[in-house]
């Protein structure tokens, strides 16, 4: 009986430890833990600055930025001309091709509503279609003889920064998968909203909401809010008129606001929009709880193996005071972050993309892994 009680106490202590870890502030930057740090290569591709994909003029309605997909309009189908009679084998082939064409989905049109009102009272955004794909993943067929065979590409080149994007991630703490993360990017009428939610298997849901202004010069964040279990925990406010950065619990702390300051989440999209060219000077960055300053520069290129083909990525790395932050940006996918790393001497936490949607169209998705049950059931 004594042995049973000791075992029970050990199990309870283990559960409490996991709850403490998974409920901490460390989970917003989760991703897959590699077996070893990859050896980066010389950058052999140029990451292009993106032109903003500007939607139609928007009408403000209430506080915050809320962009919702409009119903997709299907163009009228042209009248079909009677096909000449062919041999049976040719008709069967033609029928198969027509069936494939009929299954091609129409792209969604995204509409935005924006306002410059404060966002302190903004309720958690709802995502009724978060788990519903707008269309099937698009792929480029390549022969084994092609020099880029085995690489993942969108169906068409992305030369404009999207109005909307959604990325689904697997979240890892060390070698253990601890949950899923979702990133939703929306922009329009000179405003942007970046909504990141983390759903661990155990522990409270975490959510980070960055909002601000956007133009051809990049992102200019106004606020960053950090929620735990639906409750506002920390926030940052960029007061450009007074030249102050307010942060912490109830934004009670403050520092002098420096030119080009970003929050920890807008930074990845600033890099993406500007083609990675933010200069070599240190950047002021806030997590809403703390403030850091370090340069963000390209560290190298890498053929990132997603488990369903490779993506050529540019890795941006910042190091300071024992902390490491990495953004793996994919030039073929509008420079979006397909992998995010946060590490220090005590922990290594990452997010690894398993689904990418751009302007309502699914561009890629990692198929469920048959060897690991429910590893990416999404």
In short:
The protein is mainly beta. It has a domain at 25-36 and 152-229 and 264-277 and 297-365: outer membrane lipoprotein receptor (LolB), chain A.
Architecture overview:
The protein has 378 residues and is mainly beta. The protein has a domain at 25-36 and 152-229 and 264-277 and 297-365: Clam (outer membrane lipoprotein receptor (LolB), chain A), CATH 2.50.20. The chain is 12% helix and 38% strand. Strands 5, 6, 7, 8, 9, 10, 11, 12, 16, 17, 18, 19, 20 and 21 form a 14-stranded antiparallel sheet that branches. A three-stranded mixed sheet has the order 13-14-15, with helices on one face. A two-stranded parallel sheet has the order 1-4. The radius of gyration is 23 Å and the shape is globular. The relative contact order is 0.18. The model is unreliable at 12-35, 57-76 and 86-147 (pLDDT under 50).
């Amino acid at each position: 009986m004594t042995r049973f009680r000791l075992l029970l106490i050990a199990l309870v202590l283990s559960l409490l430890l996991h709850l403490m870890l998974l409920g901490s502030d460390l989970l917003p930057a989760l991703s897959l833990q590699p077996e070893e740090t990859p050896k980066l290569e010389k950058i052999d591709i140029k990451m292009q600055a993106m032109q903003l994909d500007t939607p139609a003029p928007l009408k403000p309605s209430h506080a915050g930025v809320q962009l919702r997909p409009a119903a997709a309009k299907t163009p009228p189908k042209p009248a079909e001309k009677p096909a000449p009679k062919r041999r049976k084998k040719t008709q069967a082939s033609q029928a198969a091709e027509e069936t494939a064409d009929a299954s091609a989905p129409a792209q969604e049109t995204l509409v935005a509503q924006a306002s410059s009102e404060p966002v302190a009272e903004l309720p958690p955004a709802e995502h009724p279609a978060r788990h519903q794909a707008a269309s099937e993943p698009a792929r480029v067929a390549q022969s084994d003889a092609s020099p880029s065979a085995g690489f993942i590409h969108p169906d068409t080149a992305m030369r404009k920064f999207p109005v909307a994007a959604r990325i689904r991630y697997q979240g890892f703490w060390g070698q253990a998968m601890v949950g899923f993360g979702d990133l939703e990017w929306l922009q329009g009428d000179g405003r942007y909203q970046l909504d990141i939610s983390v759903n661990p298997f155990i522990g409270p849901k975490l959510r980070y909401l960055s909002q601000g202004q956007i133009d051809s010069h990049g992102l200019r964040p106004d606020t960053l809010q950090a929620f735990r279990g639906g409750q506002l925990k920390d926030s940052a406010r960029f007061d450009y008129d007074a030249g102050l950065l307010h942060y912490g619990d109830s934004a009670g702390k403050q520092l002098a606001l420096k030119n080009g300051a970003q929050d920890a989440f807008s930074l990845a999209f600033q890099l993406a929009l500007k083609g990675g060219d933010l200069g070599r000077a240190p950047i002021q960055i806030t997590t809403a709880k703390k403030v850091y300053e370090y340069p963000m520069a390209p560290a190298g290129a890498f053929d990132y193996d997603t488990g369903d083909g490779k993506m050529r990525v540019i890795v941006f790395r910042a190091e300071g005071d024992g902390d490491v932050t990495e953004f793996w940006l994919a030039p073929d996918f509008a420079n979006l972050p397909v992998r995010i790393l946060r590490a220090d001497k005590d922990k290594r936490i990452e997010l690894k993309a398993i689904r990418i949607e751009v302007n309502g169209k699914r561009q890629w998705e990692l198929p469920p892994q048959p060897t690991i049950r429910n590893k990416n059931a999404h």
